[in-house]
Amino acid sequence: MLRNEDLTGAVFRGSHLTLSDFSHSTLAGAKLNETEVSRARFEGATLFRADFTKAIGWRANFGRAVLEQASFHAADMSRANFTGIKAAGANFTKSELNRSDFTGADLSGADLSKSELARVVFHRTGLKGVNFSYSNLSRARLNGARFEDVNLTRSYLYLTLLGGADLSGAVGLTQAQIDIACGTAETRLPTGLVPPPGWPCAEEAE
Asked: pTM of the prediction?
C-alpha cells in the first residue's frame, strides 16, 4: 500500500508489484521497466516521464493519472484502464493494449505505432498528432473521433468503428483501409476517398 507517497525517481525495475496500490502517489521519473503491475492501482498518480518499458500490467488501473512523456514501449497493458489520463507525448510503441479503455484521455502527440490496439475504446479521446502507423486497430471504438494530424499509415482497420468520425485530417489513410472499416454517413473522409458500399456495418456481438 503506497498511496499518496512521494516516490519521485524510485527504481522498481524487475519488481513484482501485482495488486499494489500507488493511487495519488508521485512517481515522476520512476523506473518500472520490466515490472509486473497487473491489477495494480495508479489512479490519480503523477507518472510524468515514468518508464514502464516491457512491463506487464493486465487490468492495471491508471484512471486520471498524469502520464505525460511516460514510456510504455513493448509493455503488455491489455484490458488496462486509462480513462481520463493525461498522456501527451507518451510512448506506447510496440505495446499490447488490447481491450483497454482510453475514454476521455488526452493522447496528444503520443506514439502508438506498431501497437496491438484491438477492441480498444477511444471514446472522447484527444488524438491530435497521434501516431497509429502500422498498428492493429481492428474493432477499436473510434466513433466520433477527430483525426487531426493522426498518422494511420499501414494501420489495420478491420471493422474499426468510425461512425461519425472526422478523418479529413488523417495522414497516410488509403481506400483499402477504409473499405474494411465501419463508418456511417456522418464519417468524414480525406479528399479522394469514398465510403464503401458496406457502410454502415451490421452490428456485431462482442
From this structure: 0.96
